[in-house]
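To fix ideas, we quote verbatim a fold written out as tokens:
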Amino acid sequence: MKPEDSVDNLLAEMFRMSKARFGNAIKGYWFCDEEACPGCGRPVDLLTVKGQEAISLNAYIYRKTGILIGYLLCKRCAKQIFRAAEKNPYQQTPLHATIEQNLVAAYQRYLSSLPA
């Protein structure tokens, strides 16, 4: 199995879980496959979690359209969010706002690239 197949399968599962939780508010999903981290613009890379290499697969619900946007973070941004969550669980950080803004812009670029 190719790594991108795993990401696709995990995102489909995230969509299923979101659909079960939020119902018709979730209409579909899209994966932001840009190579730049939506948090800082650096290349997306692997991080180490408990001695194992991992990717930071995340999702954001773009409420305006009901689309679950899947994305990857670089290790620097992922670690920053992990540390913030340890100190203040369930709290948004300024980095979250940056990520969301960049994901919405990427999704809008994707939509505008589709044939009319």
About this structure: The longest helix spans residues 3-22. The helical segments are 3-22, 75-87, 94-113.
